[in-house]
User: Fold this.
Amino acid sequence: MGKWLAGSATLILATLATGNPQLHAEEFPWCVKMDVFTTNCAFANYNECALVARNGGGACIHNPKFRGDAENSKSAAKTSNKQR
Assistant:
């Protein structure tokens, strides 16, 4: 049992050290902020975000952790301003 546990731990640490992209959460440009403690940043566009925000009583915000290209960010901001 100890060898199995040590082998599993070694495999997990090796995977983390290689920077395997499957272990990182994907960031999207839009978030629904429901309250002080609840934010869901799983929205690729403003329309998806607005639908969930409307149904759940939250508000759409730009994801501060999203690092997309500048052109997509500008077009997303223009789209959100038109729809407000």
Remarks:
- DSSP finds three helices and three strands in the chain.
- Residues 24-83 form one domain.
- Helices lie at 2-17, 46-56, 70-83.
